[in-house]
Amino acid sequence: MGKKNKTTQKPKTEFIFQKKNYTFLFIGLGFIALGFILMAGGGSDDPNVFNPEIYNFRRIRLAPTLILIGLGIQVYAILLNPNKNKN
């Protein structure tokens, strides 16, 4: 019968994401948070009074655009392969 080798090697743990991925993830989260912050507010305390500030450029165009850009950065960060040039 064969002898069993008692020295077992632990498998090397390797993370899926590297520092570059996390950097882009946090940048994307910053864009998304900024978009939601810019979208907030503009309501009226009295429900009988109309406040036209709810339809300004910042809330209708800028904030949703920033959120979509942030989501695009998130997708890029997930698909980014930082080890591509190492091989």
How is the topology of this model organized?
Layout: H1 19-39, H2 57-79
Helix pairs in contact: 1-2
Give a verbal description of the structure:
The chain is mostly helical and 87 residues long. The protein has a domain of 52 residues. 51% of the residues lie in helices and 0% in strands. The protein is built from two helices and no strands. The longest helix has 23 residues. It starts with 18 loop residues before the first helix and ends in an 8-residue tail after the last helix.
Q: Considering DSSP H and I runs of 4 or more, what fraction of the residues is helical?
A: 40-55%
Query: Which spans have pLDDT < 50 for at least 5 consecutive residues?
Result: none
Calculate the mean pLDDT score and round it: 87
**Cα separation of the termini:** 41 Å
Rg, alpha carbons? 24 Å
How many runs of DSSP E, i.e. beta strands?
Answer: 0
Largest beta-sheet details = none
SSE class:
mainly alpha
Tell me the β content.
under 5%
Total helices: the number is 2
Q: What is the succession of H and E elements?
A: HH
Shape: elongated
Brief description of this entry?
The protein is mostly helical. The chain has a domain at 28-79.
Keywords for this entry:
about 90 residues; mainly alpha; about 50% helix
